[in-house]
Design brief:
The chain is mainly alpha-helical. The chain contains 1 helix and no strands. The protein is rod-shaped, with a radius of gyration of 30 Å.
Amino acid sequence: MQNAPVFVKIDNYREVLDILDVMKKKIKETKSEIAKIKELKFQEDQELAEWERNINEISKRVAFIDSAFFDSE
């Protein structure tokens, strides 16, 4: 591909610059939102893991109590 000069009307050039500026801002905002979503997902995953550990602990205790009552008969 050749590096030939491109001629653009000044009005169109300014419009393109404005559009590019808007696009850059939107990309920056989108990246920021993605980072927030990732952080929320990380926190949610940690919370779910804690719930799972709690349920497993409760399940073990219930099994122990169950065996204590019914194995002694």
